[in-house]
Please model this.
Amino acid sequence: MATANLAQVNSQINKNAPTAGTAITEEWMDNRIDIQSCHALNADPNTPDDLTFCLKGDTSGMALSSDRSVDQQIIVHVTFLEPVNLSTIQFIASTPPQSTDVAPPRVVKLYYNKIASFEDVEEDEGTCVIQLDQLELGAPVVKNLERAAFRNTQSLSIFIEENQSDQEISFINKIRFRGIAASTTNMNDLKKCKS
Model:
């Protein structure tokens, strides 16, 4: 019985593991996001609860924007279906919502494996602080992440702290992540067992 279970486990591992000598390539993590567990704090009340438009697929010109009646800050919670090793984050803020007092993010803080609240972000500087330049934001902006700081990421809180021109409303069209599944093992790192 134990032999059958061991054979099943080995079969499953081999099915998901890369062939020895092949390079593991990074990919966009869109399909590894647990969209049902993702949500935003201080989002405009008219924002759909389902953040698919912001975290997966085509943005279709939609924007996640802050609640005008509160302030310009937004926290986006992202949960992954499995642990991932993140290498880059991409921001797209090219299509603002219909409003005159809206601006894309300027200061963004990332919180690794934490579902952060506004109280948390006041007390904690976060894992990473990203400064975005107004001139960059006409096109997708890709920022490298410190790989060691974002290994085995199961969740991420993205805190949009300030926007470009200190407007009442912050907006973002899309946030994407690039990396690999943490379960991906480099077979070249394994040593052969001697019987």
Summary: The chain is about 15% helix and 35% strand. Residues 108 and 130 are 5 Å apart (CA to CA). The chain has a mean pLDDT of 85. The helical segments are 2-16, 52-55, 118-123.
